[in-house]
Amino acid sequence: MSTIYITEQDVSFQIQHQYLKVLHQQNQRICIPIRNINQFIIFGNISLPKEVIKLVTSYQIPVLYLTQTGEYLGRLENPSQTRAKYFSYQRRHASKTEFNRAIAESIIWAKLHNQHTLLQNWNRHYANYTTQRALNYLMLLMDNLSVAPGIEELQEYSEEADNIYYCALTSLLSFYNSSPYINRKRISGLIDLGNQLLHQYIYTLLNTVGLDPNYAILHHKEHDELPLAWDFTAEFRALMVDDLVLNFVRNLANTNGNGNGNGKNHSHKLLQKFLQHWEGKLRTFVLHPYGGEISYRQCLDLQVREYLASLLGDVEFYRPLALKFHPANSDFINTTKPPTVPLKLVKQ
Fold it and tell me: Are the beta carbons of 250 and 335 closer than 8 angstroms?
């Protein structure tokens, strides 16, 4: 399955024999069977023709609209009124305090652990007070999660962790960014774009397995669009987005930018380069404690299915993904098993 990124403004579309063709300046850039398209991500003021909209809705292909700088605009909603396959299970578990408390703790523990692992990894080359303080504080919060009486308190711990973690991340980004082509605002935009891409990809997985993205545990529908996808995003954000942006900024500094041009042309090239790195991140392999050596793309799918298994009662508790720090290697290449949280032992 493939993601179609549309970044050029003067594109046209053709449909022939269940194939989608995308043309730019009368040159064919993409030709792919409709059934092989996973999602569309469209940047800028680009309108899909009616025949394309009809086809993507009939195949239930998600379409995300972003600005040319990667800010969220909206999505093409599927008009289907069919309930998600496991909607009844999600609704039934929505009021189960013990079940939701256990999953919330697992996800937040993995989030804090992965934030700690990322800082530990990058701290080998640039250690300062800000990053060391964040490392110590994250460990303290991880140890205290079990005493939080409920999900609201767990969320407060998570917010506290974010406050100190992102100070450390900003410090690292400032250290590695020596490129004249990228400033703090643009770096922030890349992080936001990465989070949107991660969220959207998880949303496609939820659709695939038959989960309703509006039934979440940590995030709420009234504040967050497709909140269940944001729940999983919290677990993967440091591993996939923050690490990607750090590497991206460092590589830009080492290559003096990404080519000729300035202004809109340079922003466009930067966007295309970042999307290439994002696809590369999805293909990066790690050693999953339960799935073996698999790509991040497969890890995301496995975690969604792990949640579904816990929902159906096929497993006793949800097992999040937590990567292990390897000081001899600059990348995340291994994982560690998180502590188990048996539902029957969780205090209400």
Answer: no
